[in-house]
Specification:
Blueprint lengths: L5 H13 L2 H15 L3 H14 L2 H11 L6 H14 L5 H16 L3 H14 L4 H12 L4 H14 L2 H5 L1 H9 L5 H13 L3 H14 L4 H13 L3 H14 L4 H14 L3 H18 L4 H14 L4 H17 L4 H13 L3 H14 L4 H18 L4 H17 L3 H18 L3 H19 L6 H7 L1 H14 L13 H16 L4 H13 L3 H14 L4 H14 L2 H14 L7 H13 L3 H13 L8 H5 L9 H17 L3 H14 L6 H15 L2 H9 L8 H14 L4 H14 L3 H13 L3 H14 L4 H13 L3 H13 L4 H13 L3 H13 L6 H21 L3 H25 L4 H21 L4 H14 L4 H14 L2 H14 L5 H13 L3 H14 L4 H13 L6 H12 L1 H4 L3 H13 L3 H11 L6 H13 L12 H10 L1 H17 L5 H14 L3 H17 L4 H13 L3 H12 L8 H17 L3 H14 L4 H13 L3 H14 L5 H13 L3 H14 L6 H14 L1
Helix pairs in contact: 1-2, 2-3, 3-4, 3-5, 4-5, 5-6, 5-7, 7-8, 8-9, 9-11, 9-12, 11-12, 12-13, 12-14, 13-14, 14-15, 15-16, 16-17, 16-18, 17-19, 18-19, 18-26, 19-20, 20-21, 20-22, 21-22, 22-23, 22-24, 23-24, 24-25, 25-27, 25-28, 27-28, 28-29, 29-30, 29-31, 30-31, 31-32, 31-33, 32-33, ...
Keywords: Repeat, TPR repeat
Family: Belongs to the TTC21 family.
GO biological process, one term: protein localization to cilium
Length: 1328
């Protein structure tokens, strides 16, 4: 039987409690169909019909079951109530039924008492249920249902003290008893006292026991709503709908989620239509359900007209069912009011007054409608206002409820706003209304009742009044935020927190943030708004204004296009044209700007207010007076910029006439002063500006204009600063202090600026921007100690990490590394303030500063770690910045690209990992594909790896991106041609470049190197002459670039002393210092360009070495001194050169020290050719030839690069020397030919080849190679000259031998054996 089924009883009780009477009838009919006739089902069906007003049907049904077991008492109670409600009550029948009830009470069983409780609760008085519950506990203490019923009566009907006892009764009733109705009661009790988590646990117990118990699932969804866990709420609702597709409450909560959380208005309109159909079908007599649904969704929809049409239909259905209910009639009138049909709403309110003349809500509604009509028509008629004010005063006197009082105080504020009363008065009343409204909400748990009581539409009405009092432009940094904006933000954040899908609230919240100076916050809010509805045209327009404020014109144009694409009518909105015109002006298209502004001026509602057109029922966008004036003034400025002064004056006069006597009149006067300045009438402009007093709006702007005139037109710094001093005296605030400080900084008086900044900082000690300004000013005074101390003091007051990072950056610049490290460590440990995106931006900056610190202190592994983390953090930044701050996305992409480039340089410099460097540079190109610097770096890396095609591809790409060509790309293209053995083409690229710019010394230096490698050193002189001619003979001698190039040429020609002098002149120049010093060191280490560590020619050079030992000692000491001066971005280069000095001494201890140093470098930087070559030199000095050979073989297998060309050449020559010594002439010859492929002027390679052929007694071939060696040594090396003459002699070329001998002896008269061994023998051979 149903009486024994707790789940069925709980379901029927729940729906009776909620007023879902038709649901109760359907459940009983379904139960009877499944289980047969049951008096319990018949009983519930009867009382449900009675609750719906079907009295006669109820009486007929009750007559059938009134004597049935268990329900007899409840049936008689219900019958008594039905007889009393019938059209013609039968007193005798009622008396008989009441007597029967008294008789049944005395002998009632527990279940009879139970159903007696049910009948008396749902259709009887509030006292009877308690009596039945008490009797049930007293007579049947073991029946837990009695305690649950008693708990319900205490919870629902009793006062606060008794209500609190209900919790214990619920606990007692649920002990060893899984009554779902008890679980629902306990959960509601816990929700009432805001114990939401405990309530959730309780209702979950019911769901675990009864998984398909819909009431428990509905209650759980409501608890999740109270917790604002929308996702979990929707999960519960989906479960309900999977059981019952047409459950009204589940559909209501679905719509609540769609409107309140997601802001999907179009989708919600369809769902509201479904809800109406469901109620029509399943609860057609439930007027309360119709009305409450209409109330709920109309309050949170942001006055969306399509939704309001549906909510009006819902209220209309309720009024049809109960046409004489004044509350329903008032709600119907309010729905019309929300649609903006104020005259029609007044008629509806009059319908209520016809029923109840003293209905306060209707009278209040009429007053509100009349005020809104005056506000809309901008018609503040004094008689009408007096009449409305009298009605308001009357209502305030007769009203005592908190709800009405909050509404009435708001109406007072609205009336004051229309009357033009001061902003402070209006704001104060609105604050009072808000406080009363919020006090009422504090007693309600978040749910459908809360949303109706909160009434976001009412709060939005308050915001609209406040925004009319707010400034039209964003406040400046340091300027106090007006009270109207503070109050607006407070209200809007409350709405957005509870109803995040309310698009109007999001939009106005963004607007308030924008006007308050929180530009980033405004942009982020708008992005959130547009993510919910991309067609929200007003949001696109405001976002365009934000981008324009930031100077991002491309993004502004994009937003305007988006707004137009989603709503074509936006082109008729003057603000659209205003934003577009400002963008055109900034991009320099003045003529198009003028046309756009003229079009805006011709639109309805611009030249005159829109109220007159609204009276004519014309649909026009409402434009505030500030935007109207901005259109006039922008047109004046555009005409002035276009030298159309007469037109500008005409538009200005129109503005003066249109805004005379309004709040914007002062702004017109300031603009007129600007126009006078543009005409050159400075005095007239100053007269206009002086007339603006400190009590008038725009006083600060007028003083700023005066100051600029004094500075830029009168050149009077004293009067310039006096304007800001007056401003600070008459309008003291942190903003005016800031203006005065900035003025002092502008005229280079940082000491005075610091005093003023500190004064402002004392007023606002948490202003990080102001603290930064003081720090920067102290740095400008070069008082670094005080600046550091100031920063540290400011940080103690709780400033954000941005100030700490600024200090770290400064400490790095002054090379105070320990302090910088400490500050960066503090930044990592301190919890940052601001949005998540701001914190990530600060973290990227911190990591970059840390990488710089580690780089400067030589901690390269830590540098790499910091850069890697910075790259990861910046990747996260880029994901968020596209949505939250798209206008800074380009800047952040540039930063990401720079991080990748730093990682690439680290990989190349410290790890010698070219492939990793290429990978990072390619990643940098993802962020900026047209970055020529990155393209050139990639080309350089590919050139080093020998991938000439890829190198050429990137060079060509860089050349295409450079309109006037790219010198670096051109030079690299020449290197590619050379590597491809296209020597003529390679040289041609440099020739073309130097023909245009003969003094392009970098290109000239590279050309000299290229001509040398191409064996055409003789052609260098003409380019040197051209450069000297371009610079002028006197200036060329002082030009470090020219001296370097000339020194390079002399060095390659074998004139080491001359080269040293020329390099010495160039090393004083910062651009050429590193290269010149390096070359000087190399010359000092090896002036004769011998093969260091080589043994083939050692015996031949012993005698010469003995003679020049003192010269070599001097050269080594010079090299030692120069190395100490040498500085390079590559620390390994310095270390290698220091070690080379040690090796060049050829002393074993020095060689061992050098070897250890070379090994250390090679471990830190893999495959670093100079270090490997140095190791080979050291091994040779130490007579460990096999080890030397191993290192040299390793080098010979590596890819040749231009940067390390000299080191490769030295390695190949030394390895060839080792092979020659070992008698491996073929292997040596291959290496020497490889050497000559890369450098056709390598005289040492020719010398070795000559030696090999000489050993093989092929004197003719030997002579040919020695001849080339002699030629490329500029015929200055006596050793090569001797060998050449000797092989000429052996090859029977006696005349050539004599000629060479004469040349050698001319330069070296005492050269040993030349005369005796060659000259005399050659002459003798000729005589014979």
């Amino acid at each position: 039987m149903a009486a024994d089924d707790l789940e069925t009883l709980a379901t029927l009780n729940y729906y009776m409690l909620e007023g879902y009477y038709r649901h109760v009838q359907m459940i009983t009919i379904d139960g009877t169909r499944k289980f047969g006739p049951d008096p319990v089902f018949a009983f519930y069906k009867s009382i449900a019909k009675l609750a719906e007003g079907q009295v006669q049907e109820c009486i007929r049904d009750l007559e059938v079951v009134k004597d049935r077991q268990n329900v007899t008492l409840g049936a008689h109670i219900a019958l008594s109530s039905a007889l009393n409600k019938s059209q013609n009550p039968d007193a005798l029948a009622i008396s008989n039924v009441d007597s029967k009830i008294k008789e049944l009470r005395r002998s009632a069983t527990d279940m009879e008492l139970y159903f007696g409780f049910v009948a008396s609760w749902f259709i009887g008085s509030s006292k009877s249920p308690k009596e039945f519950a008490d009797r049930m506990i007293k007579q049947y203490p073991d029946d837990k249902k009695g305690y649950i019923l008693k708990a319900w009566t205490d919870f629902v009907f009793e006062r606060e003290l008794a209500s609190k006892k209900a919790g214990k009764l619920f606990d007692h009733g649920l002990a060893d008893n899984n009554d779902p109705f008890g679980y629902i009661g306990k959960a509601r009790f816990l929700v009432k006292y805001r114990k939401l988590r405990q309530a959730l646990e309780t209702i979950n117990q019911a769901i675990i026991t009864y998984p398909n118990f819909i009431p428990a699932l509905i209650e759980r969804a409501k608890i999740y709503l109270a917790l604002q866990d929308w996702d979990q709420m929707m999960d519960s609702i989906k479960k309900v709908l999977s059981i019952n597709h047409h459950h009204p409450e589940a559909i209501r909560m679905q719509i609540l989620f769609s409107i309140g959380q997601e802001g999907k208005y179009a989708e919600s309109v369809n769902r509201l239509g479904e809800l109406i159909q469901v109620i029509d079908r399943f609860e057609p007599q439930n007027q309360n359900l119709y009305v409450s649904s209409g109330q709920l969704f109309s309050r949170i929809c942001g006055r969306n007209l399509a939704i309001l049409n549906q909510t009006y239909t819902l209220i209309e259905r309720g009024v049809t069912l109960c046409p004489r209910n004044p509350d329903y009639l008032n709600e119907l009138a309010f729905q019309v009011f929300l649609k903006g049909k104020y005259e029609q709403a007044i008629k509806c309110y009059n319908d209520t007054i016809a029923l109840d003349e003293t209905n306060v809500q209707a009278l209040q509604g009429i007053v509100q409608c009349r005020l809104r009509i005056m506000e809309r028509d901008q018609n503040a008629d004094s008689d009408m206002l007096k009449d409305v004010s009298d009605h308001l005063e009357f209502l305030l006197n007769i009203t005592s409820t908190d709800h009405h009082e909050a509404q009435l105080v708001y109406l007072e504020a609205l009336a004051d706003s229309i009357k033009g009363k001061p902003q402070e008065v209006v704001c104060e009343k609105l604050q009072k209304a808000l406080r009363k409204h919020v006090e009422k909400l504090g007693k309600i748990v978040l749910g459908t009742e809360y949303f109706m009581a909160m009434d976001p539409s009412f709060l939005m009405d308050m915001v609209n009044i406040l925004l009319k009092l707010a400034p039209s432009q964003p406040v400046f940094s340091g300027q106090s935020i007006p009270p109207s904006l503070v109050s607006s933000r407070q209200i809007l954040e409350t709405i957005v927190k509870v109803v995040p899908g309310m698009l109007d609230a999001l939009y106005y919240n963004a607007k308030v943030k924008y006007l308050s100076g929180d530009i980033d916050g405004a942009a982020a809010t708008l992005q959130h708004c547009l993510s919910q509805d991309t067609t929200y045209a007003d949001a696109h327009l405001l976002l365009a204004q934000i981008h324009q404020h930031r100077g991002n014109h491309a993004a502004t144009a994009q937003c305007l296009d988006n707004a137009l694409s989603y709503n074509f009518e936006i082109r008729d909105h003057p603000v659209y044209h205003l934003i577009k015109a400002r963008t055109l002006k900034q991009t320099g298209d003045i003529k198009e700007c003028i046309q756009t502004l003229k079009m805006a001026l011709s639109l309805p509602g611009v030249k005159r207010p829109a109220s007159s057109l609204l009276k004519q029922n014309k649909k026009v966008p409402v434009v505030n007076s500030s935007d109207r004036l901005s259109i006039f003034l922008e047109l004046v400025e555009a005409h002035t910029s276009n030298e159309e002064h007469h037109e500008a004056a005409k538009v200005m006069q129109d503005a003066i006439n249109a805004f005379q006597g309004t709040a914007e009149e002062i702004r017109v006067r300031i603009a007129n002063a600007d126009l006078s300045v543009s005409r050159g009438d400075i005095e007239q402009a100053l007269v206009m500006l002086r007339a603006i007093g400190p009590d008038q709006p725009y006083y600060v702007q007028s003083k700023e204009k005066m100051a600029n005139i004094y500075l830029h037109h009168r050149r009077d710094k004293k009067l310039y600063t006096s304007c800001y001093r007056d401003l600070m005296e008459k309008s003291p605030s942190s903003h005016t202090c800031l203006l005065l400080g900035d003025a002092y900084m502008k005229i280079q008086e940082p000491e005075k600026a610091i005093e003023v900044y500190e004064q402002a900082f004392r007023k606002n000690p948490k202003d990080g921007a102001l603290a930064s300004k003081i720090g920067q000013a102290l740095i400008k005074t070069h008082d670094y100690k005080k600046a550091i101390a100031y920063y540290e003091t400011s940080l103690k007051s709780g400033q954000g990490n941005h100030l700490r990072l600024e200090l770290a950056d400064f400490l790095l610049k002054i090379k105070s590394y320990p302090k910088a490290k400490r500050v960066l460590q503090q930044a990592a440990e301190t919890e940052d303030v601001g949005s998540e995106l701001e914190m990530m931006l600060n973290e990227t900056k911190r990591l970059l500063l840390l990488s710089t610190l580690n780089k400067e202190t030589g901690q390269h592994e830590d540098e790499l770690l910091a850069l890697t983390k910075a790259r990861e953090t910046q990747a996260k930044v880029l994901k968020r910045v596209q949505v939250e701050q798209p206008d800074v996305a380009v800047e952040q992409k540039r930063l990401a690209s720079d991080i990748c480039c730093k990682l690439a340089r680290h990989a190349r410099t410290h790890d010698n990992d070219t492939q990793q460097a290429i990978k990072y540079h390619k990643e940098a190109l993802i962020y900026f594909e047209d970055d020529t610097n990155v393209l050139l770096e990639l080309a350089r890396l590919y050139l080093q790896t020998g991938d000439l095609d890829a190198c050429q591809q990137y060079c060509m790409q860089a050349l295409r991106l450079s309109a006037d060509g790219n010198d670096q790309a051109s030079m690299m293209m020449a290197d590619v041609m050379f590597s491809k053995k296209e020597y003529e083409d390679a040289i041609y690229h440099y020739q073309k470049l130097l023909e245009v710019r003969p003094d392009h010394y970098e290109a000239l230096a590279r050309l000299i190197g290229l001509l040398r490698r191409g064996g055409q050193l003789k052609d260098v002189q003409q380019f040197l002459d051209l450069a000297e001619q371009k610079a002028g003979e006197g200036r060329a001698a002082m030009d470090a670039g020219f001296q370097y190039c000339k020194g390079l040429y002399n060095w390659y020609c074998g004139k080491a002393p001359d080269a040293l002098q020329l390099f010495n002149r160039a090393r004083c120049d910062s651009e050429w210092s590193e290269k010149a010093l390096e070359n000087m060191i190399r010359i000092c280490l090896n002036p004769d360009q011998q093969t260091l560590g080589g043994e083939v020619f050692e015996s031949l050079n012993e005698s010469a070495s003995d003679k020049h030992s003192s010269a070599n000692d001097n050269a080594l000491s010079t090299a030692e001194r120069l190395v100490k001066e040498f500085k390079s971005a590559d620390p390994f280069k310095v270390q290698v050169l220091e070690s080379m000095v040690l090796v060049s001494t050829k002393h074993k201890p020095n060689a061992e020290r050098a070897l250890a140093s070379f090994v250390e470098v090679s471990q830190k930087k893999k495959d670093y050719v100079p270090a490997l070559l140095g190791m080979a030199f050291a091994y040779q000095i130490l007579k460990q030839t096999p080890r030397a050979r191993n290192q040299l073989k390793r080098i010979s297998k590596m890819q040749w690069t231009t940067e390390e060309a000299e080191d490769f050449e030295q390695a190949w020559l030394l390895l060839a020397d080792v092979y020659i010594t070992a008698g491996k002439y073929d292997m040596a010859t291959d290496l020497l030919k490889k050497c000559l492929e890369q450098n056709k002027s390598c005289c040492k390679a020719y010398e070795y080849l000559g030696f090999i052929y000489e050993k093989e007694q092929s004197y003719k071939d030997a002579a040919n190679n020695y001849e080339k060696a002699w030629e490329h040594s500029n015929e200055t090396n006596p050793v090569i000259g001797y060998k050449l003459a000797f092989n000429y002699l052996k090859a029977k070329r006696h005349i050539d031998a004599i000629n060479i001998s004469h040349k050698v002896l001319a330069q070296n008269p005492n050269y040993p054996r030349m005369r005796k061994d060659i000259l005399d023998k050659a002459r003798a051979s000729i005589r014979v």
